[in-house]
Structure formats: structure tokens, C-alpha cells
Design goal:
The protein is globular and about 65 Å long. The two termini are about 40 Å apart. The relative contact order is 0.15. The longest helix is centred in the first third of the chain and has 11 residues. By secondary structure, it is mainly β. The chain is built from two helices and eight strands, in the order H-H-E-E-E-E-E-E-E-E. The chain binds zinc ion. Zinc ion binds next to loops.
Length: about 170
């Protein structure tokens, strides 16, 4: 910001370099049938996926239709565990209000066991510890705080297990 701007003088020809405009927007939206089912399940600590009737791939979270084949999923749901494999990861050094971890923290793309799509989440682990193929498990909020929100899972933590075989997740990198 220039000194002219700081002094609130408007007789300067210098361009405005910073404009602060606080904006907020509250809105309600209907989650729809598929997302509602997913959110009601997660309020009970269950993870639900849905299977594509064309190729059998399990989508998690599901949007109710297959983005690849354009078909609606049937009523069948696939119950998934809260464990998975780190496919890719990033080290984040920029704070975010919704992330309850100290900087720097780790974001991960996780292949939940039994799913064929990636879940993005955060990992509570040492930076030098995270790697592709690492086995992880969800850490949930206390049960009495569960709601219809993916925020019921606070983060994932490493599992004391051997790494997943590269072939089991290479399609998702
Ligand atoms: Zn499909």
C-alpha cells in the first residue's frame, strides 16, 4: 500500500494497490438424495460409497451418478472402512481456519479401502514420515459431536502396517 493510500489522500495519481472488501454470504442448499444418504450415514460414523452399474467402480463420496458413464447409481450402497492408502500428498505452509493442525501440515489424497475414487483430507504425521503407499486410518471427533458433516473425521493418522503395493493405487496418481 502506498503512503498516499495509508493517509487516505485522494489527490494522488498513484494506483490503488490494495483494496479490502470484507464479504460474507450465507446460503442454504438441498443436498439431494445421494448426498443426504451419505451425510446421514456419516452422522452415524459410517462411510457409504456407491457402485457404478457399468464398470462396478465404487465412488466415494458419491454424487449419485457416474461422471464417466453418465448413469444414475442404483439404491445399492457400499459400506466402506475408515482406512486407506496415501496416493499423493502435499506439505501446506498457508493457514486455513478449517484445518485444526499446526503449520506446516500435510494434505493427502487417500484411496479408501474398497473405493475407486480419491478422498482429499489431512494427515496428522511428521513431515518426513508421509509417503505414497502409507496406510492410514481416520480419527473421528467424539461421538457426541457427530453431525451430518464430513468434519466428523478430524484427520487421518498413520497405521502401523506395511505400505500398500504400488500396483494397488498407481491408477489414482
Ligand atoms: Zn461408471
Amino acid at each position: 500500500m502506498s503512503r498516499a493510500n495509508q493517509n487516505n489522500e485522494d489527490d494522488s495519481n498513484e494506483p490503488v494497490t490494495l483494496l479490502r472488501t470484507p464479504i460474507s454470504l450465507d446460503y442454504d442448499f438441498s443436498a439431494g438424495r445421494s448426498a443426504s444418504r451419505f451425510l446421514r450415514a456419516i452422522a452415524e460414523g459410517r462411510l457409504l460409497g456407491q457402485r457404478c452399474p457399468v464398470d462396478g467402480k465404487v465412488y466415494f463420496p458419491s454424487r449419485g451418478a457416474c461422471p464417466q458413464h453418465g448413469v444414475t447409481f442404483g439404491p445399492e450402497v457400499v459400506e466402506l472402512p475408515d482406512t486407506g492408502t496415501v496416493v499423493t500428498f502435499s506439505i501446506v505452509r498457508v493457514p486455513a481456519e478449517s484445518i485444526p493442525l499446526e503449520l506446516p501440515y500435510i494434505t493427502v489424497n487417500i484411496l479408501i479401502d474398497g473405493a475407486d475414487t480419491i478422498l482429499m483430507h489431512v494427515l496428522d504425521a511428521k513431515l518426513e514420515e508421509v509417503h505414497m503407499g502409507m496406510r492410514v486410518k481416520a480419527v473421528w471427533k467424539p461421538k457426541d459431536e457427530w453431525s451430518t458433516s464430513t468434519g466428523n473425521i478430524i484427520y487421518f493418522q498413520p497405521l502401523d502396517e506395511p505400505d500398500a503395493d504400488y500396483d494397488s493405487y498407481k491408477e489414482h496418481i
